[in-house]
């Protein structure tokens, strides 16, 4: 399956469904500026400390079309590095969207563009051009998640998941399988059934994983 086909398939499921299978590959506290927005694509990473935006504009111009710009603000949740002009620059460069571990500004204008922007919140104070600092094309921390260049980033209203490119197809196919299972769960609920039709709750609660492990560890005397 081509990358484009894989992304189209992924968009028919949800990051939350993929999230059942990831271990640590998810961002916390980062959400779209509009509920309907989704973003998917390979990560192009930028580390942007302080109040300088020169590296952000420069680095985006190096990014392949279709990239998701992932910005590590190194803990700064006060000052927006991203506003309308950054979003317009990313859009004209053919980026798939922007995910920033920090606030955005110009929210209304970006919403009118219908361009995927994911952030931690809003701010009215912004970066300026200084040319002092910043890096790109390196592993970054975004929302508590380590994101490497080329990792696949997929986000919607519930948040953002991230996975190595060579693992993403397996995660998507498993998520689609779970989607099919959930059809049966919904039908069961609509008929007045309960989850114990699919899961042995009695055994799970009374024995649980620890009980199962204990049974495995028993030594015959």
Automatic annotation (TrEMBL):
It is an enzyme of class 4 (lyase). CDD domains: RraA_family (cd16841). It catalyses: oxaloacetate + H(+) = pyruvate + CO2; 4-hydroxy-4-methyl-2-oxoglutarate = 2 pyruvate. InterPro entries: RraA/RraA-like, RraA/RraA-like_sf. Keywords: Magnesium, Metal-binding. GO terms for molecular function: 4-hydroxy-4-methyl-2-oxoglutarate aldolase activity; metal ion binding; oxaloacetate decarboxylase activity. Its cofactor is Mg(2+); a divalent metal cation. Mg(2+) binds at residue 106. Belongs to the class II aldolase/RraA-like family. PANTHER family: 4-HYDROXY-4-METHYL-2-OXOGLUTARATE ALDOLASE 3-RELATED (PTHR33254:SF4). Catalyzes the aldol cleavage of 4-hydroxy-4-methyl-2-oxoglutarate (HMG) into 2 molecules of pyruvate. Also contains a secondary oxaloacetate (OAA) decarboxylase activity due to the common pyruvate enolate transition state formed following C-C bond cleavage in the retro-aldol and decarboxylation reactions. This is Putative 4-hydroxy-4-methyl-2-oxoglutarate aldolase. It comes from Flintibacter hominis. The lineage of its organism: Bacteria, Bacillati, Bacillota, Clostridia, Eubacteriales.
């Amino acid at each position: 399956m081509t990358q484009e086909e894989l992304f189209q398939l992924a968009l028919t499921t949800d990051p939350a469904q993929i999230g059942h299978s990831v271990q640590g590959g998810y961002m916390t506290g980062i959400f779209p500026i509009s509920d309907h927005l989704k973003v998917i694509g390979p990560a192009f990473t930028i580390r942007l400390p302080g109040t300088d935006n020169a590296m952000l504009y420069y680095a985006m111009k190096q990014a392949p079309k279709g990239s998701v710009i992932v910005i590590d603000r190194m803990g700064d949740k006060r000052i927006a590095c991203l506003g309308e002009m950054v979003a317009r620059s990313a859009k004209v460069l053919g980026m798939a969207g922007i995910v920033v571990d920090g606030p955005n500004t110009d929210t209304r204008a970006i919403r009118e563009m219908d361009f995927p922007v994911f952030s931690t919140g809003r701010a009215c104070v912004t970066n300026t051009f200084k040319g002092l600092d910043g890096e790109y094309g390196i592993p970054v921390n975004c929302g508590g998640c380590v994101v490497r260049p080329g990792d696949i980033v997929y986000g919607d209203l519930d948040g953002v998941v991230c996975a190595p490119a060579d693992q993403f197809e397996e995660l998507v196919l498993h998520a689609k399988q779970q989607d099919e299972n959930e059809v049966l769960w919904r039908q069961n609920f609509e008929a007045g059934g309960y989850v114990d039709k699919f899961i042995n709750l009695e055994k799970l609660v009374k024995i649980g994983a620890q009980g199962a492990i204990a049974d495995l560890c028993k030594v015959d005397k």
